[in-house]
Amino acid sequence: MTPSGVPDAPHTLITGGAGFIGSHLTERLLGQGERVVVIDDFSTGSRANLAAVADDPNLTVIESTVTGCESLGSLVAESGYVFHLAAAVGVDLVVQSPIRTIETNLKATEAILEAAAPNRTPMLLPSSSEVYGKSTREGFAETDDLLIGPPTLGRWSYACSKLMDEFLALAFHAERQLPVIVARIFNTVGPRQTGRYGMVLPRFVEAAKAGEPLRVFGDGQQSRCFGHVTDTVEALLRLAKCDRAPGGVFNIGSTEEVTILDLAKRVIELTGSTSEIELVPYDEAYDNGFEDMQRRQPVIDKLEQFTGFRPTTPLDDIIRSTAGLA
How far is the C-alpha of 37 from the C-alpha of 26, rounded, in Å? Predict the structure, then answer.
């Protein structure tokens, strides 16, 4: 691994490549014999996430923000493909640092799109299930209307900034013929994900292993679908190889739904923990007025139609993997 420099041969560029999903994607591509350049400022990612491939001669790591990377233009121009994973992550970070959230998402995406446009470098832009906002539909499809909360509640800054990323990417596709794909990623979990920024499953696993209470916000009846990171990486790679995908928006995620209360119970059971469950009112966990969504289940028919892939890893296997038991 080198701190700077660009491989001579065409490479895949991954911004945020030392993050949770980014590091798994980096490993997968290196395992296929590809050359990979990672741009990461290690603000939420970690060098430890790339430890297994640190000495791979096909890996170049550049420590920088996307907007502060002086060689961004040449890095993108010499790339065969760009995965733009650099973004603000985690509900805690979003609530506590809304300016950082907005600027990180919008400015970095604008910079990478501008860099990709001259040579029409193909790229994939991960978005988030958060863009569906407060919709009460049973399952969220890519063509659904989106219902974002008011700007007086900072938690919506992330959803709104990711949605603007989508608009901008699709505008570059329409006006500059940039082959860009938008992937709306639902809850993705697995090894290396940290609970530091509020991610629920690693937070539960950490507490269960320590014999501490698992803190469930609200009444715990809000439900989510958790997909394994290897399934998410597979979906991203298949979309990148799909000639029909550019200009499209695709959901990526599991459709196995579970309430957060039941998730806590399953974590305790599968880890053999003696921990108890503690219900915490939202106004104790976050600022007054925090809004949570009752359900968030993706419709992934479009992903399957375009790529032939559908995430199927069972939730219990995902919990075991996240807990280091599989």
Answer: 9
